[in-house]
């Protein structure tokens, strides 16, 4: 963990007091009983007629200048009624006022009892305002002013309250458009504030002095300017090296300076997804969020609020002397022993402005926590144990949830996004590509630079993000397609180089790979393809053969430039199947050669060097058990002959194809020449893999030229055994079970299945010979 990050954790750890120099909000209003001397009861929401009645009994509000109290409509224009002439009651009003005062005190960061003393009732008409000023202390132990705007019809507009404190400014909209709600704002008494002109309607405002009873020091606005400034400096210093892999030992006692992509500051209080938001943070959480928000703006950082979700599972063990034994009345006692699987992600993203952020679930590591030991001793929110059953031992599952503030440099957003994985980054890259093409399609544009940067992050992590080697196009195709559209040759070369090192690709990706390589210099493209084939041919032979087959037909360079790749592919061809079995365990054994592999090898090597294609065909014909004529070579040859004239293929290596064709025709003609005659009697092949009594009787039946049907009345096990032998030997028999009586009877009836199969095979052979001869 970087020393800068450790210092940042220490700075934030000193911020304990919540609050700000202002607070605002809304509260539900349950119609209070309100009377004004000289007017009588006041109905809410306030109507224009009663607003005029109040103005008629009010006086112009003065303002203070030094020790003087002046009335000047150019400085302050509004109407006021002294608190002594205003009476507010009703069963619900005291609770409403108490909630407003409590919320305002919390927002101002004030602990302990706070009292509200009504000071004035103000009536603002259209055009009324109050220029910037600072309140004087109107009562002993007063520390702040609270204004409550009552509803009116029509709702007033304009009249924003602007509050300033130590270089900061906030604009509060106090319009009360909902008749059943009031809006309120509170601010410390030493704050400079003003009210912009009311542009429409009337506004009725209650002004309270907020005081602290008893001999206690008066609260002051929280001031974290020093902490904010230091935090901003640390963030800037950290951002300069974020993402760099450094092993810089600062001194013999310091830690290695490897900075993560983002920082995560866990909060103290618990928050559900429904209540998660910057405006709902409590206590010191709110104070730290305020400091980080201000510092993030100065340091050009992104700040979000998110939920930390950690899921762990693993092995549990029984506790106590009894081990796994327990009586039927006792509950098992288990405890977690070892964590086998752990997933830690950030979800439910929120922005400082109150909105949600469209970010996917992003994983994180312990090195990104601030401070590093933030989760030490963390208690799980949920924990479930499962007793041992059968071959499965005891296990556990547990979940941790915490809210946290998350920071990263705005310039490194794409590096953070990359942590979400290919399911997020590839669509984002494709969207950048579309937007770049729709804009100007110029490589110097910011969209191109973003795409290039994101591609670099994806390529850098490819080894741990790639899938298997299935035939369909995979993530590699999507990445290369975007890079080809961007014409990002640097990233294309880097990605192909990465595939040669430790990445993976599918057979279906080879088209995109060759098309992308076509944007490179011919020799560079050929070198990269050779590197990939040399590195991957032993583990991904079919994909490498398809890659070279496409490359050999693509105008990358002269044919001989791919000679090295062709030699590597030829050397990787499987031969003796018994040797392959001895070299690879059964669970990691390469799949047998396919017709597609043979066709790709002939196309690839024939497109590079005809002699290499001949050597490949010689090799295949020499190992007939690996390259079966009917299952592999003939289907490959039919495919080659059928596509020889395709424009995408090069001139075929005719000697290699002719050698395959000759061998195939010899094989087919030899089989066609075999006698083909329907059986003249009921004698059938009687060679069976078993010589038990039942199977001896079956063999005798098969060898009998006159007997068509044979039955075996026996238990299920004997009948099942005989059926299995019939299937294994491929006997020309129809098998059925007669379920009359006990035990059941197996009924075997001779057929002409072998002859019919040979008839069908003869027809296919004739068609194939005609096709190959044509």
TrEMBL record:
Classification lineage: Bacteria, Pseudomonadati, Pseudomonadota, Alphaproteobacteria, Rhodospirillales
Signal peptide start and end residues: none
Alphabetic keyword roster: Plasmid
A Pfam entry, by short name: 2OG-FeII_Oxy_3
Protein name per Swiss-Prot or TrEMBL: 2OG-Fe(II) oxygenase
Acetylation keyword on record: no
Prolyl 4-hydroxylase alpha subunit Fe(2+) 2OG dioxygenase domain: residues covered: 120-209
Classification via PANTHER family: FE2OG DIOXYGENASE DOMAIN-CONTAINING PROTEIN, MYND-TYPE DOMAIN-CONTAINING PROTEIN
